[in-house]
Amino acid sequence: MRKEYLLAPGPTQVPPEVLLEMARPVFHHRTGEYRKLHEEVLAGLKAVFRTENDVFISSSSGTGAMEAAVANVLCPGDKALVVQGGKFGERWTELCEAFGAQPVVIEVEWGKAVDPEIIRKHLNDDPDIVAVYTTLSETSTGVANDLQSIGAIVKKNDAILVCDGISSVGAVPMETDAWGVDMLVVGSQKALMMPPGLAFVTVSPKAWARIDFCESTAYYFDLKRARKSMKTFDNPWTPAVTLMVGLRKALEILNERGIEQIWKDHTRLAQAARAAAKALGLELLADPPADCVTAIRLPKNVDGVELVKKLRTEHGITIAGGQAELKGTICRISHMGYAGDYDVIIAISALEMILDEMGCELELGAGVRAAEQVLKNDQGTSE
Ligand SMILES: *Cc1c(COP(=O)(O)O)cnc(C)c1O
Q: What CATH number did the domain enclosing 351 receive?
């Protein structure tokens, strides 16, 4: 019997309870039933995002909410500071360009985090910068950026802080309000245990001042229009009702466990994945690594594109390879959202088997054993 395992950093697995919720009949959205659903989902999201700020839901993938965080904030010609340390940082730059703004790009070596002091220096030197675009976990490299330190720097400035937390929020710590993140962007198909199709953006009072000042070219993603509808828990357009019903269930599961416990759960799985990679003599790409996805450098003689393809088509295991300049040289294993101990064991076991199959010298079981050593200890190890 062939089984399929989805262990990629998005889309991720969806709990059966959530899938079952979404099997219910569709209902109309201009109703009290929908408004109640919307209100409950917003409360659940605010608990996960750790914010009292406004939260908007768009029927799009994560990039739609990224577009909202650019189109509503930057007028043509406006300067924005962009941290670019991977594929998703590049997306901020491309979005700024698409809306006629001027990105000032901080190039960060792929696999490394941005030094917050560089952001401070740019803001001090250039008072025309109106927004800073960052990524919490750069999913293309598995790196975690220090948003707490970045927030402390941007807070003292007139610029607003925008953060792409699409893959990481719901997996790794994000204190939106306490850290001063003015706009946080999140997607449904990563740590929130949902299928693709919903995206979220939070808006602080400081970000609203900027948005109200800006003559935006946004239409579908117009946040001012969304704010008006929000007063009655309505949406300007037809919301993705079925996904919203699923999300209410997913949030109920997350908030029942509690977001702080969930962060710890992710750390434990990440420690197991990292210990396994090291035990196999493989290097980790990310420094520092985020606890939602583990990026592993493959041995030089292994074609990473082939490895990922063989795993999926011959073994039923979907993990991710490298993107752009990392193509063929790394693999990325996700342990976020609806992932447990044995998802990590399966991923590591599959990696061992495929590397063996592709002619690498390694001790079968060494990675699995190292992962088990971490997982049998409920607290995880302190690395
Ligand atoms: C997945 C991801 C995105 C892209 O989101 P889409 O849902 O594909 O539009 C953006 N940023 C990060 C960090 C991601 O992990």
A: 3.90.1150.10
